[in-house]
Amino acid sequence: MNGIEIPGLGFPDTFALKKEVERKSYKLVLDFQDGAISIIESRSLVKELHKEIQDISEDEVESLGTEIADSNYEESRDIHCERCNKFYRPYCRIHPLYKIPDREPRKDEMSLLPYSHQTLPILFRIEASRLPNAGLGVFAEVFIPVGMMFGPYKGIRVHRKSDFYKDGYAWLIKSGDKKIYIDGSDPQRSNWLRYINSPRHEDEQNMVAFQTSGRIYYRVIKPIRIDQELLVWYGPSFGGEFVETEVGGKPKKPSKNPFICISHNGSRR
């Protein structure tokens, strides 16, 4: 090898090669200041400000955050960022998503509970909603940051409203000219998302529903504190639409959102 060795560094071209292949490392964290899931460089991690979730490679980070024009949106590849009001492939790098899976039901426990209860992650509990006439609701057992994502919404796939097990729990999935309903009204064939109520007004919402890859997911858009109820706004879902229950003679809630759910008792329960 040509060149003059530099004490402590080795040959100049060897040092240059090491600099060229040096890559950044990243971490997915809970940012306490923003109350949100974030991606930061590993060297920027401050224990007082961040809770580390997992490592992320530079290649993974570089693959995120490609902005997609509305006209080029592909339902199976792109996700709308509520905070940026833009589509990204696969999702926003500044406001990343972190999916929490359903709990796997165990045969040796909770056998008396419906299947939907058994899928509830340990982060939450199901109890009487604090909304008037809303039946059961879902409450946070721990702090839930912006960016957490749950789903998909589970239920029976049907082609006609007349096949619903019960009104007030169905999503209409649209894919091109095709339509199908996901009916979550049967607690033995749905999951815990069926118990999340809609807010009385837009300011109460802390979650939003969206469609991707032919399925419905819920994501957190406002920090949810311990003992706070999860409330999902059935808003513009970019392909999915909550099926409103027909209410004879009762006016709809005033709302900017055309898909807010109205049921027989003013809630989904």
UniProtKB/TrEMBL annotation:
Give the taxonomic lineage as stored in the record.
Eukaryota, Metazoa, Ecdysozoa, Nematoda, Chromadorea
One BP term from GO: methylation
Q: Which residues form the SET domain?
A: 124-235
Signal sequence segment: none
This protein's major location comes to: nucleus
Q: Which CDD domains match?
A: PR-SET_PRDM7_9
Any one GO molecular-function label of the UniProt entry: histone methyltransferase activity
Q: Name one GO cellular component term.
A: nucleus
InterPro entries, A to Z: PRDM7_9_PR-SET, SET_dom, SET_dom_sf
Compartments it resides in: Nucleus
What SMART domains does its record include? Answer: SET (SM00317)
**This protein is called what?**
SET domain-containing protein
Q: Record's superkingdom?
A: Eukaryota
**Keywords of the record:** Methyltransferase, Nucleus, S-adenosyl-L-methionine, Transferase
- Pfam families this protein is in? PRDM2_PR
